[in-house]
Write a structure and sequence with these properties.
This protein is of the alpha/beta class and 362 residues long. The chain has one domain. 17% of the residues lie in helices and 47% in strands. It has helices spanning 7-11, 47-53, 56-60, 72-78, 310-318, 323-334, 344-358, and strands spanning 23-28, 31-37, 42-46, 85-89, 99-105, 111-120, 125-134, 140-151, 156-164, 168-179, 184-191, 197-199, 203-206, 211-220, 225-234, 240-249, 253-262, 267-277, 283-292, 297-306. The strands form 2 sheets. It has a 10-stranded mixed β-sheet with strand order 2-1-5-7-9-11-14-16-18-20, with helices on one face. Strands 3, 4, 6, 8, 10, 12, 13, 15, 17 and 19 form a 10-stranded mixed β-sheet that branches. A hairpin with a 2-residue loop joins strand 1 and strand 2. The protein is globular, with a radius of gyration of 20 Å.
Length: 362
């Protein structure tokens, strides 16, 4: 691709230079184009620079949460020079403006391999908007993304991932998170555009008095295949886990995998998957899994798959909306997941991505 990056593609994944942020990081193919931060106590540098300057990162975190032999994609990444970011927040530093990151596939190589590491010191706070996209819808290739995250004691991380790929892209994110005592982790995933194949099943392991929550919003257009979900392992007492997904299939296949394991006293876990089928060619497949290893826990799940109600359509059309306008309004309302704990700036970015997609402007 050329050196020019399409600003509209960046906005479609939440990388908006007009929005307030605490820092930015951008990679095009395997070239770091931007790396900066504007808040004391926040460090944003390339992963290779971090390893070169701080060898303990390789010893303590790099391929320590994700096994390099976990699957064929981690094996590919393990044999490449790492490209990605290292983000560190110092102890007690609480940052409310989001860190914006963008990873664009430009087609200069058939594979894009990314490795990110995030570390939050005790009592710190950070929100990251991580956007991934092909530089254009015509690009074809494979994106592999490894992300290893450590959230320290009493720290909070909000991690939002927005995808806008294309019909020729295969995408394999591999993530692992450890949340220490008293910490909290919120992950939100948004994919509103067509992708050939997306497979991801991140794992979070939590300590005592921890809250871990996953939210996903997926619109499966024709030709798309999404196999996504999350695993939450509640290993500390009095910890909670939640996994919520909203899935629309407009001809695509969407598999939603959800797993919560409660192993300690006072664990509470809940998962739900709601699917909406818009035609007869789409597939929504919900796969919930609960695992209990202690008598004093409370784990639950619920799932539903249905279609747009004729009554709702008729009601809105009697109010002057066309059928397409009514359908769009119903779908937008279905995808409106209230993510508690998401800062207003990040919530606004997510809402804008969904609105643009539903309006056909992405």
């Amino acid at each position: 691709m050329t050196g020019i990056v399409d600003s509209q593609r960046l906005v479609s994944i939440g990388y908006d230079t007009c929005a307030a942020s605490c820092g930015r990081f951008m990679v095009v193919d395997h070239d770091v184009r931007e790396s900066r931060c504007s808040v004391a106590g926040l460090h944003v540098i390339s992963i290779q620079e971090a390893i070169d300057r701080h060898p303990h990162i390789r010893d303590r975190v790099f391929f320590k949460l994700v096994e390099p032999t976990k699957n064929e994609f981690t094996q590919v990444a393990a044999h490449r020079s790492p490209v990605g970011y290292y983000v560190y927040v110092e102890e007690g530093v609480r940052i409310h403006q989001p860190l914006q990151a963008a990873f664009l596939f430009g087609g200069s190589h058939p594979d894009q391999v990314i490795h990110n590491i995030i570390e939050l010191g005790p009592g710190s706070e950070l929100n990251i908007v991580n956007g991934c996209a092909s530089a254009s819808r015509e690009e074809s290739g494979r994106h592999i993304g490894i992300t290893e995250t450590v959230v320290g004691k009493q720290a909070h991380l909000g991690y939002t991932m927005i995808h806008n790929w294309g019909p020729g892209m295969e995408v394999y994110p591999v993530g692992a998170v450890v949340v220490e005592e008293g910490g909290s982790f919120i992950s939100s995933y948004v994919a509103m555009e067509q992708a050939k194949k997306v497979v991801t099943f991140p794992k979070v392991t939590v300590g005592r008095l921890v809250s871990a929550r996953f939210y996903s919003i997926i619109y499966g257009k024709p030709g798309s295949f999404f196999d996504t979900g999350a695993m939450v392992f509640l290993e500390g007492e009095d910890s909670t886990g939640e996994i919520v997904s909203r899935v629309v299939s407009d001809g695509g296949t969407v598999i939603s995998r959800q797993m919560i394991a409660g192993t300690a006293r006072g664990n509470i876990g809940h998962m739900e998957c709601n699917g909406l089928l818009l035609d007869t060619t789409g597939v929504v497949h919900s796969i919930p899994e609960l695992r209990g290893e202690h008598p004093d826990i409370d784990l639950s799940h619920e799932a539903s798959i249905g279609r747009i109600s004729d009554e709702e359509l008729s009601y809105l059309m009697t109010r002057g909306l066309s059928m397409e306008q009514a359908r769009s309004l119903i779908i937008r309302g279905f995808l409106d997941v209230k993510i508690e704990g998401l800062p207003p700036e990040v919530r606004s970015m997510v809402d804008d991505v969904i609105h643009r997609a539903m309006s056909g402007t992405i």
